[in-house]
Each structure stands twice: as structure tokens, then as C-alpha cells.
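User: I'll paste a sequence; please echo it back and then give the predicted structure.

Assistant: Echoing your sequence first, then the prediction.
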Amino acid sequence: MRISTIQAYNNSVGGLQKNYGSVTRTQEQISTGKRILTPADDPVASVRLLQLSQEQSLNDQYKSNITAAKNSLTSEESILQSVGNVIQRIREIAVEAGNGAQDGSDKGALATELKQREDELLNLLNSKDASGKYLFSGSQGEKQPFVRNPDGSYTYQGDESQRQLQIASSTLLNVSDNGKALFDDVANANRVTTSGAAANTGTGRISLGTVIDKQAYDSTFPSSMPPAASDGIGIRFLDDVNYEVYDLNDPALPGGYTALSTGAIDRDDKTQDKITYGGVSVIIDGHPAAGDDFGIQRDPSSEKKGLLNVVADLRKALEGATDNQEGSYAIRDATGIAMTNLDAASNQVLSGRGQIGARLNTIDSTETFIDDVKLVNTGVISDLQDLDYAEALSRLSMQSTILQAAQQSYVKISGLSLFNYLN
């Protein structure tokens, strides 16, 4: 078989290029520390590496969401703790205001501090998180949740949903709460209206009503809206001590009614006495006369009372207090209702803090899981991709020797020619 000079040259150059390419590839592997430089090096491992890389990127995003969720919930928990402290101080003010020895100037001073606490509460309830979104406006993070109306009352203007972040493939976590559930939907102790009949002849006075048993209250008082004049119960005194409770909707009125309950006030203290029926408690002040009538009716519009409005109502009562017996009765009623409502609001805030604590626990366990998955994935990626330096260096040494031998062979072969032997 004839081998032309050009064929010999081509074969030698091809061998040199192949050997040089092998050396260059091994050197690149050593410099990068990676076994796989292109998908062609190991197609199966390359596909697995791509899947693992995508999973790692997703886990990195989950970690970022976890950090954001943790920051938001930690801020919210801190705010709720501050709200609880303010509620406690307001309750102390209410207790102090209920002291019958307080005069007008004392009540005015308490109202001044209460106004400051009211402003502090408003600022806390309108707090923002680190990203500048309102914590308690539900899903409307850009909208201020609580606003003060011209009449001094407060309105919630967020929605009733919650913002969420995905912190794992199948875990969505609430990272905000709506202020309506936390601070506005507080069960109101004063869900009834009370009044004395215009024809009463005694000096008896009925206080504001306080709901002390919701189940009995719901079963006794109808909840029609708007309430009818006959919805509720009446208290009629038979003399200055004994009374009967009857249904205002009793068709036998006014001739004769069926007494639902009877009782007698405690004449040892003729200035006041308490009557409880249907889950509602009232105080009868003064001296009712025989035939005097008092009514208690459900007010469906006042089933709930927002925390800010509870504080505002107490402040208004203190600001408008008069230095007489009627003023003392009004302050007593207002402080009693306020303390009950503040206790309900405080329990609601504590419940909110408990929910936040549960979410933070979920974050901690999820973060630990994601860290473990990332660690396992990193190990698998290393097994698939990382270079065995000992093997690579040994291979490079062998390839370099082969390349040098090929180069020396090429030099000798390229020097062979018949012209070298012609004289």
C-alpha cells in the first residue's frame, strides 16, 4: 500500500491535534475543578445537574421568602406586644377614672393622657413592615388600615384577607393579618340599649346594659334588623323593691302580661342594685316607684366594637363628665363597659400573638428542612460534577508524555525523504 507524503503529514498532524486537545481538556478540568465541561462529556449526569441546579435556585427563592416572612412576622409580633402594653395602661386609666373620689379636673387629666394613648394606638395599628407595607390592612398593603373620622370615631378601610408567601413547594404562609379581625371585631359588652319610661314617677335610673352570658343573651333577645320597638324585655316595679321581668313583645300588654322572672332589689343599699336576666346585667340606681318601667333592647348595630372606638368612647365620657351624681353614674357605666371591652380586645391581641408564634415555628421547621435539602443536593452535585484531582493529574501526565512522543515522532517522520539519499 502506498502512503503519500501528504497523507503521512495529515495523519501526524491529526494525531498531534488529538493529543493536544486531550491535554488541553484535562488542563481545563483541573483549572475549573469540574469533571463535566459540556453536556457531551456525560449527557445523563448533565441532565441531572440541570435539575438539581433548578431545584437549588428554587430553594434559594424559598429561603429569601422565609427571611421576608420572618422579618414581617417578627415586626408584627413586636407591634402586638406594644399594643398589649398600651391596652394595659388604658385599663389602669379606666380603673382610676372609676374612682368616685375623682373630680372634674382629675377626670380631665385622665382624658388628656387617654388621648395620647389613643394616638399611640392609632400609630401602632397603622405600622408598616420593612418593605413599607401596612401590617394590618389585610392584602392591601399600600392602604392605611385605620383612619380617624371627623366625629372622632375610627373606621377600618383595609380588607379581610391576608398576604401570603410561599416558603416551600406546598407551603403558603400568612405574613400579615387584617386589622378588622385583630382590633375591630371585638365583642362589645354593651350590645343593648336601656331606657326608662317617660311616665316613671320614682327617681330610679337604669344603667347601661352589660352582656355577661352571650349564649343566654342570644337565646333571649331577638336579632331583627332594624330592631322593633317590642324586641327586648321590660322591668316593671311592683313597689319600690319588688319587680317583674316581662317580654316587651307580650301580646297581653298593657292589660296583663306573663312574668318571665321576679325579684327584689337589695334595699340595704338604696342607691343602686343589680338585675340580671337573659345574659344581660343592669344596675338600678335611685329609688324606683311602683309602676315604674325600664326597657332593655338588643342593638344589632353594636355587636362589635373596635379597640380604637372603645378608647375613644371612654375618652369622650371623661371629657364630658359632670361633677354631680348623674355624672358619676355615667363614668361608672362607661368605665365598666370599657374595661370589659379592653379585656376582650387584649385576649384578641394575645390570640393574634399566639398565631404569629405558630407561624414562626412553621418557618423555623421549614427553613431547617430546606437547608437539609440544599445540603444533600450540594453533595449530589459534587459527586456528579466535581473532578477527581489525583486521577486528572495522573491522566494529564500520561497525555503530556503521549503528546511529547507524538511531537518527536512527527519531527522524525517529517524529515524522511528520498531526496536525502540522492547524491
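The mean pLDDT is 82. The first strand starts at residue 146 and ends at 148.
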